[in-house]
Write a structure and sequence with these properties.
The structure is a single chain. By secondary structure, the chain is of the alpha/beta class. It has two domains: about 130 residues, Rossmann fold (3-Layer(aba) Sandwich); about 80 residues, Alpha-Beta Plaits (2-Layer Sandwich). The chain has six helices and eleven strands. A six-stranded parallel beta sheet has the order 3-2-1-4-5-6, sandwiched between helices. The longest helix has 14 residues. It is globular. The mean pLDDT is about 85.
């Protein structure tokens, strides 16, 4: 898959290198050419100096062939503009924007644009948004028998009661919905775009992922 990344700071460069190492093609855009020093000398992706929300620059970065666009500059306004151009002008479905303002983040989550805050694990979280099948473990207990994992819920579960989902060896502990975390109760229904945090027996993680993949079909 081809990914366009706007912003070559710590998050953008880390994300670009991770994607390249996983066999994906990447184009990185930054308005300052010296920002690319964060990439290795043998970086196999494309680097473009320019304004990230400029359509000509995005086309040069291959946005028409892209499966995902990530906006991780230092400014919320720039990231919002990039996200909107990618979604509205080029029809990119997987768009992730780094937005520090929680009120703005909620608005764009409602528009289907995934948002992440400025936290040390931002690059990992972005990878999960654009590569939803990427295995990820948030936490492991000291005995290594229970783990906490983050997974997107498939659309075919929309309308189902969270606490009635029968997944052997796994239980949903919390949901991330429109940039807000909630603890489900007996009345909570799955909504489109929900991301769940599962407490899972370690040996049941693969079974959980298979359950969710079947749900996507």
């Amino acid at each position: 898959m081809h990914v366009v990344i706007v912003g070559c700071g710590r998050v953008g460069s880390t994300l670009a290198l991770s994607l390249i190492s996983s066999g994906h093609s990447v184009a990185v855009v930054d308005r300052k050419s010296d920002a690319f020093f964060r990439l290795r000398d043998n970086f196999a992706g494309q680097t473009i100096t320019g304004i990230g929300f400029d359509r000509d620059v995005l086309e040069q970065a291959g946005i028409k062939q892209a499966s995902a666009v990530v906006a991780v500059t230092n400014g919320d306004n720039s990231n919002i503009l990039v996200a909107r151009v990618a979604r509205e002008s080029f029809g990119i479905e997987k768009v992730v924007a780094r937005i520090s303002d929680p009120k703005r983040a909620e608005i764009y989550e409602r528009l289907g644009i995934a948002t992440v805050a400025t936290v040390k694990w931002t690059s990992d979280r972005i990878l999960r948004r654009i590569l939803p099948d990427l295995p990820a473990v948030e936490w492991t207990d000291p005995s290594s028998s229970i783990v906490l994992v983050e997974r997107a819920l498939p659309d075919n579960l929309v309308g189902e009661k969270i606490l009635e989902l029968e997944i052997k060896g796994a239980r949903i502990s919390a949901l991330r919905r429109l940039s807000t975390a909630v603890i489900p109760d007996s009345k909570t229904l799955v909504q489109q775009g929900d991301v769940a945090y599962f407490t899972v027996e370690k040996d049941s993680v693969n079974a959980l992922d298979e359950f969710l993949k079947r749900g996507k079909s």
